[in-house]
Amino acid sequence: MTQLLDVRKMNILRAIVDDYILTAAPVGSRTLSKRDDIELSPATIRNEMSDLTELGFLEQPHTSAGRVPSEKAYRLYVSNIMDRAQLTEDEAEYIKAHLSQRVSEVGDVIKETARMLSGITKYTSVVQMPHMKNARLKHISLVPVTEGSALAIVVTNSGATNSTLLTVPKGITTAHLEKISSLMNTRLSGYKLVDVQTTLLPLLREEVGEQAESVAEMLEGISNDMTRQNVEVVGAANMLDYPEYSDVAKAKSFLSELEKGEVLKEVLSDDGDVEMTIRIGKENDNPELKDCSVITVSYRVCGEQVGSMGVIGPTRMDYGKVVAVLKFMSENLGKVLSRMLLGDGSDGANNK
Amino acid sequence: MTQLLDVRKMNILRAIVDDYILTAAPVGSRTLSKRDDIELSPATIRNEMSDLTELGFLEQPHTSAGRVPSEKAYRLYVSNIMDRAQLTEDEAEYIKAHLSQRVSEVGDVIKETARMLSGITKYTSVVQMPHMKNARLKHISLVPVTEGSALAIVVTNSGATNSTLLTVPKGITTAHLEKISSLMNTRLSGYKLVDVQTTLLPLLREEVGEQAESVAEMLEGISNDMTRQNVEVVGAANMLDYPEYSDVAKAKSFLSELEKGEVLKEVLSDDGDVEMTIRIGKENDNPELKDCSVITVSYRVCGEQVGSMGVIGPTRMDYGKVVAVLKFMSENLGKVLSRMLLGDGSDGANNK
DNA sequence: GTTAGCACTCAAATGGCGCGAGTGCTAACG
DNA sequence: CGTTAGCACTCGCGCCATTTGAGTGCTAAC
Q1: Same domain for B167 and B53?
Q2: A–B: how many Cβ contacts below 8 A?
């Protein structure tokens, strides 16, 4: 493509998208000509719209209706046209306040984040719990609890802690446990959790003599537990406010799909190191989302990418706003979590 | 009330409720007379229906429509008329299989229970995580993890274990922690968790000298963590299948309310020792549920009532089926959890 | 006490009608 | 030559009158 569209076409297209995002109704030439930012007669606009339709940026539901932006138009809008909306002072303040007030549990912070995301955007929000795949092991201790169970306490280099209750073979003694944990420590310290599961575990399984099986099982239990991904979904009901879901059948299939949780894998799919991903309509792998757009952003704790979150809305979502909110939210969540996991010490992330 | 209704009226009422539960459409005299179990002419039935209307068991949406059961009718139906449906072999089998296959985590078992409940009933299900309020403390240990944090490991008399990460004052040493935990053990062992929070904590706070504040904070952290109630909700989207929610606005307000979570408190409200509660329509405290019925049942682990679960559906829900499923599910969940918490030893509950 | 018959009611479905928003084309204008 | 006014044409949508049919209540006969 050379210069995609001349300035006037751009302006018209922007106006159409803006309007459609707001009203969900096909927009016509007259409506546009009334706008302040477009000083053209309806007829001229009609000509331009005709061109835009031919180029695939607009669609007509039927002959005598206005035009509706195509997915191609949204794509262009997102990458070239829209001016990213700013959060209002109030919103920014609100987010900061609510995020730092819940400093007790990681889970709570994630939930609150999801709530705020959908509260501000009025769409459906999805927030992943931070995973620890890339965290490096620092220390493992095994504490006997009852006959047949022990607690594994795992500390990672970032300072994060996790504990899992393990079932251990009945006969095992405290001395045994200590031996095993010291073994684990010498062999595993410094490695990533994800490596433990994929590569180190098989190796170790061969090497350890006596308690081979128990050690292996324990490790598997630990890394399973620490690798499991949980996702908070909030605001699904919001979708019912939009005319695209005024059909109950559509609403139902969307909500069911959400509940099944397959959708979440799509959000979860972290595209390498990409900061933010915008998937419009059929760009989503899941056919259930073909009328939705999904914007996701990853967040980092102490520089390490540990999870992502996203907003799901109709294709005519307010992209500018959502992008702004997500960006802000991701940064702030990162800060708060970093602070939490490091025990309030202010290193790593700069918490202004 | 003497004998509430004569046999024929009962039969007719049952037939109407049965039919309405199935079709959600007002049922007329002709429809009824065609049924095999009622051998009367439409005219006779009309007379009876007229009586039933006067008695408050039936309602007419408008003059020329059939009759619809009133809440009073459902009440009667539930307590006197319905024959509790049995689960099919397949369903029972299915439940047992899926429940015992997920023996790893309590949370998973609860989730699976909720999923099956709504899967079988096609309504919305709500399952509470088991609480430990009534569990008696057996042992507490505090394990230092990093500078500034320690893990509290709590074992209860039933063998259940729980661990919480606590933040401790920076200066504290391992020796300190040991002292504190032994103090906790001597003073608290044998008490119920719920008592710790409400009555023991203030007492203790005065008594301990030196580390008063830290101890108190820790205990508060522990008991907060162990008392928190979590609830799984599954199948909300199912409601959209029923004509009573074909109005999107209604659907939306129901779903929003569910998401807000206030509804859950209602389910949670354990009516003392009552096994099963059925709330029909406006019997629900929450006005949002005035067109719903909620059936809840508590479940027990080792004889102790530790949580409850329920099904939310339209007032014309299939009461017989739901009651049967809930009863079965509650028993089986109890068994599975008992087995899990006791570490597979088969005492307490009899696991056939 | 039960039932057939009949007049009456009323929601919902049906179908025509006109409105109005919007298009596309053509011809005139600067 | 780009822009605009004018006009005929399209077509979904809401409105209204009509029909349909399920259902009732009453009365009179069995």
Answers
A1: no
A2: 80
Q: Which domain holds residue B18?
A: 2-81
- Is the CB atom of residue B49 positioned under 7 angstroms from any atom of strand D? yes
Q: Residue B348 domain-assigned? A: no
- Calculate the angstrom distance between C1' of C27 and CA of A40: 19
In a domain, B350, yes or no: no
Name every residue whose Cβ is closer than 8 Å to that of residue B269 and which is 6 or more positions away in sequence: none
Minimal Cβ distance to B255: which of A153, A167, A240: A240
- φ, ψ dihedrals at B285, nearest 5°: -65, -35
User: Residues A121, A270: one domain?
Assistant: yes
Query: What pLDDT tens digit does each residue of chain B (352 aa) get?
Result: 445 788 999 999 999 999 999 999 999 999 999 988 888 999 999 999 999 999 999 999 998 899 999 999 999 999 998 888 889 999 999 999 998 876 667 888 999 999 999 999 999 999 999 887 777 888 888 888 777 778 888 888 777 777 777 777 777 788 888 887 887 788 788 888 777 767 776 666 665 555 556 666 777 777 777 777 789 999 999 999 999 999 899 999 999 999 988 888 777 776 667 789 999 999 999 999 999 999 999 999 888 888 899 999 999 999 999 999 999 999 999 999 888 776 544 333 333 2
- Residue A172's Cβ-count burial label (10 Å; 0-12, 13-18, 19+) is middle
Is the same domain home to A60 and A120?
no
A60 CB less than 7 Å from any atom of strand D: no
> B193 and B215: one domain?
yes
Residues of chain A with Cβ-Cβ distance to B167 below 8 Å are 343
Q: Is residue A352 part of a domain?
A: no
Give a yes or no: residue A347 inside a domain.
Answer: no
Residue B146 and residue B60 share a domain: no
**Chain A: residue nearest B254 by CA?**
A237
Same-domain status, B277 and B318: yes
Ordered alpha helix ranges (H), chain B? 7-23, 29-34, 42-54, 71-76, 89-101, 106-121, 174-188, 193-195, 201-207, 212-227, 248-260, 262-268, 319-341
* Whole-number distance in Å between B178 CA and D16 C1': 86
> How many separate domains does chain A show?
3
B347 DSSP 8-state letter: -
